[in-house]
Amino acid sequence: MRILVVQNSRTAPIGLVGEALADNGAALVTVAANEGEAIPALDGYAGLVVLGGPQDAWNDAQGPHFPVVMETIRAFTEADRPVMGICLGAQLAARAYGARVYRHEVAELGIHGVTLNERAADDPVLGGLGPELKLAQWHYDTFEFPEGAVPLAHSAACGRQAFRLGRATYGFQFHPEATGEIVRGWASRFGEEARERNRGLLDGLDAALDAHLPAAETFTRTITRRWLDLAAP
Q1: Is 177 a catalytic residue?
Q2: Engineering a disulfide at 47: which of 8, 82, 110, 162 sits with its beta carbon 3.0 to 4.6 angstroms away?
Q3: Which of the following is catalytic: 112, 139, 175, 212?
Q4: How many structural domains are present in the chain?
């Protein structure tokens, strides 16, 4: 199966999700949409992954390609082909179906707790996992759930961490794809002004990554395999 991957920044690659997809027999076709590469039609693709990035999902001046990304999300959803939106991708999935995306009161950076909701218990991707997880986060914005979405997860700081829309469109505010290298790369590009504004959020980052990423990787490989199963003929 071929999976279309929409990349919104070179700093936010597909990471562990890509490894898990490849390990389960998927072929990835990655489009750098933020660099002007055209997003192809859904013909020939079994599923869609929309990755994160530093842009604000509600600001098309930062992402002139966002309208086409949202059209693509709707096309895959309406064709009943699975979608996985990660961070910015989740926000664009919410916005694609009319939900508000906006700046959150607090940032979530580093490793944070995520709690799966009761509705996640019988979800085909998240069922039987959690309920308490420690996962990578890196976001300043949040979103409302689209009409008809099933809420699946929340955190202490952010009530909207995961949702499912229809049979197989998923939005994950957290970063299942993130490796230690990816997260440390985000931290290394953190400017002094941002560090001052978010003082304390990255304290103990290295220790948290070492402590929690092995379990997070197992979680990622499980949900990615299950998500890919939704694309199987």
Answers
A1: yes
A2: 82
A3: 175
A4: 1
Degrees to nearest 5, angle at CA 51 with 50 and 56: 100
158 tagged catalytic: no
Active-site residue, selected from the candidate residues 108, 112, 158, 177: 177
Give tens-digit pLDDT for 120-176. 999 999 999 989 999 999 999 999 999 999 999 999 999 999 999 999 999 999 999
Task: Output the pTM of the full model.
Answer: 0.96
Residue-range definition of the domain harbouring residue 143:
2-229
| Domain CATH for 141 | 3.40.50.880
- CA pair distance 19, 16, nearest whole angstrom: 5
Please say if 175 is a catalytic residue.
yes
Please identify which of the residues 65, 87, 139, 217 carries the catalytic annotation: 87
